[in-house]
Amino acid sequence: MKTNLKKFIIRGLCFSSLGPIIASIIYLLININTKNFYLTGMQVFVMVITTFLLSFIDAGSSIFYEIESWSPFKSIILNFIFTYSITIFTILINNWLAINFVNILLFTGIYIGIYLIIWLAFFISSKIITNKLNKEL
């Protein structure tokens, strides 16, 4: 368990700076293309902290797929819960999405759809590779 926690933290720290960097680039592009766009110091601080946490948890939760005592289903569900929770938190706390039921429901549906597409693509490609390897044996 300590090894997995250590891997979670190391992965999280390795990729955690990407969130604030990407968010800063997006804000820069918005600033270039929008008149009278500005952020307060508190908005910048919140953006940096939340996108740091988003990147940290997203990267760290990839360790779930390496825990051999867990079923693939458990790994996928826990990864989804972790990544969805931090993503919706980041989006709402930064006011990137108006807080109302319809917006959250739409975001959740889109998030689930994209998550399923990614995992179906991964599953299908791994099946194809497995079948090719089995034929070679």
Global geometry: globular
Overall domain count: 2
Mean pLDDT metric: 91
How far is the first residue's CA from the last residue's CA?
Answer: 36 Å
Number of strands: 0
**Helix count?**
5
**Beta strand %:** under 5%
Give the topology string: H per helix, E per strand: HHHHH
Low-confidence stretches: none
Structural class: mainly alpha
Sheet with most strands: none
* Helicity level: over 70%
Radius of gyration based on Cα positions: 18 Å
Strands, helices and their partners?
Layout: H1 2-15, H2 18-33, H3 41-60, H4 72-93, H5 101-136
Task: Describe the fold and architecture.
The chain has 137 residues and is mostly helical. It has two domains: 2-96; 101-137. The protein is built from five helices and no strands. Helix 2 packs across helix 3 and helix 3 runs antiparallel to helix 4 (72-93). The longest helix is centred in the last third of the chain and has 36 residues, at 101-136. The model has no long low-confidence stretch (mean pLDDT 91).
